[in-house]
Hints:
The chain is 35% helix and 34% strand. The chain is an alpha+beta fold.
Amino acid sequence: MFVIQVKGISCGHCVNAITQALTELDSKAKVQIDKTSQTVRFDGNATQTNVVLAIQESGYEVVGVIKA
């Protein structure tokens, strides 16, 4: 499980786009997104690198990893 700081999460579309990208990596993953703190909590089998790439490919800027 890790938490990633992502710049630009501001609406439901953002949440849906990131959630879809991450569940494509791991359909059983638990993904929680907080628009206020602009964080993505990922608990699944994908690597941190793959999660970051999936978020970036969805059009969002990864600022950093808060908790690994």
